[in-house]
Amino acid sequence: MSTTTPGPTPLVDPAELIADPYSVYARLREAGPVHRISGTDGLPAWLVTRYDDVRQALADPRLCLDKRNAKPGGYRGLALPPALDANLLNMDPPDHTRIRRLVSRAFTPRRVAQLREPIRKTADHLLDAIAPLGRADLIASYAAPLPITVICDLLGVAPSDRHDFRSWTDALVAPDPEQPERTKETVRAMLGFFAQLIADKRAAPADDLLSAMIAVRDDEDRLSEDELTSLAFLILFAGYENTVHLIGNATLALLSHPGQLAALRADPGRLGGAVEELARYDGPAPLAIRRFPTEDITIGGVRIPAGETVLLCLAAAHRDPHRFTEPDRLDIGRDATGHLALGHGIHYCLGAPLARMETEIALAALLDRFPRLALDVPPSELSWRPAMRARGLLALPVVY
């Protein structure tokens, strides 16, 4: 097969990309499997759009996450200090293998299973608070506080120490270019928070994930201090960011498809499969974490030089008609096996079982409590986070 090196694709309208990414990515997918694009920051990258190519690339060891393999001048993602950057999203084997194995020991199925009842109680408590109001913003009152509570319980963060994590993630995922100091202040605040939290846990260990990770660091000397801090940051950041968007997007999808919502209410036993389809239909991450080829590679007949930035478009892959029949249609009865919302290959999300369980419990509790749940505004009036790499609502006004 001959290979080609296309020129840059003009930057699409950022507002259109935020409001309707699937139409934008569909045009790109139909035009070709790989595009040389200019990101919203003006830096070049290669966008891969078709399911088979994206899935294969997610598991290709030649596409690394370590930013030291990136060429200067390309898109590299969020810049963080070493104490927050030495995490699994920036690592390749053998370090990735070592750290994932160690974290897996602490992130056990038993520990996750123990959270099922507390998650349901937290969901019920949050719904108790809004039930008398008749209307609410489900992001602020439910989809956001639920995963924050869960991940803080998992890590062992005391309720009195739980800060405004949503403002932190907002500043990192969708930084305001007119307020660069806000991002720097957020990074400083997070570094201080995790340093103090680790010191407290080291002085008084408990039965929580962070204490278990500290034991791995101190007893076996297998985690560096930066790796320990970065892992705590990643678990909090990813455990919150992805789950709040998955819950919010899934709720909106169901409210926008009354037939599917009715089918789920009629048979709650379909909820597990529905969560998989909802993750495919409108997942929390349109793009996988950026990757850098360690050698010249060819994807979809397009040659990509070593060291350049590759963006694997999950949003485009999930609507690829060659993989999913009528991909733009929500169908909770669909076999969505093979969706890539939680990754694929060695970088498959370590917290995937927890994210699935949280979303299933959150939806079950919500639908049980509010049989007349409906949107309080037309879908066209909803606002989305201004970020390419996160797909999430700023608010979800509902009545019940």
Automatic annotation (TrEMBL):
GO terms for molecular function: heme binding; iron ion binding; monooxygenase activity; oxidoreductase activity, acting on paired donors, with incorporation or reduction of molecular oxygen. InterPro entries: Cyt_P450, Cyt_P450_B, Cyt_P450_sf. It comes from the Bacteria. Keywords: Heme, Iron, Metal-binding, Monooxygenase, Oxidoreductase. The keyword Lipoprotein does not apply. It holds the Pfam family p450. Gene3D superfamilies: Cytochrome P450. Belongs to the cytochrome P450 family. This is Cytochrome P450. It comes from Streptomyces luteolifulvus.
